[in-house]
Amino acid sequence: MLLYGASGHAKVIIDCLQASKVPVTGIFDDNPDIQQLLGLPVLGSYQAKYLPEEPLIIAVGNNQIRRKITALVQHTYGKVIHPSAIVSAYAKVDDGTVVFHHAVIQASASVGQHCIINTSASVDHDCVLENFVHISPNATLSGNVSIGEGTHIGAGATIIPGISIGKWCVIGAGAVVTKDIPDYAKAVGVPARIIKIKPLL
């Protein structure tokens, strides 16, 4: 597996790959000062001709940056699922997505491309996550929740059943979302309240 990004997020992906006995065949990063990551060499900026048949993961935690990179890079993408994660045989996980330690994805859930299902996050039955979503550690999506493109659900947040959250939202850590949230909103607290709506530039 090739990785684009030599960040802290990439370290967790490397750990997942090694636990699954999948070799890391190359790491790219645009910062020339980064020479190695967890003892593995960093090859510099992305090279399309380097092992072009090997699947790639964008190992960047920021949803907007991950989307920008995928718009520039033409490559076959893989997916990474830690062996301790529980993913239903009836769930769908698209390419480019990573599922970390002890995460759970239940039956009929659909997870889009280049998403992050972080440590011990729970995605219950019939949830729909669009591309570039990040579900942070210990966050809980109850059944039939929909999450729009690029939205970040903070650590320990809880989304009650049937809620719809728009695209490019931020839900604060520990928030409890009891009502639908529109696009581009930032919501925090218990129950969650919207404190800002700001479209992407």
Automatic annotation (TrEMBL):
SUPFAM superfamilies cross-referenced by the UniProt entry: Trimeric LpxA-like enzymes (SSF51161)
Enumerate the spans annotated as PglD N-terminal domain: 2-70
Q: Which Gene3D superfamilies match?
A: 3.40.50.20, Hexapeptide repeat proteins
Query: Which residues make up the binding site for substrate?
Result: S7, G8, H9, G61
Instruction: Report keywords, A-Z.
Output: Transferase
One of the Pfam families matching this protein, by short name: PglD_N
Record's PANTHER family?
ACETYLTRANSFERASE, UDP-N-ACETYLBACILLOSAMINE N-ACETYLTRANSFERASE
| Protein family | Belongs to the transferase hexapeptide repeat family.
Q: What is this protein called?
A: Acetyltransferase
Which species is this UniProt entry from?
Answer: Rhodocytophaga rosea
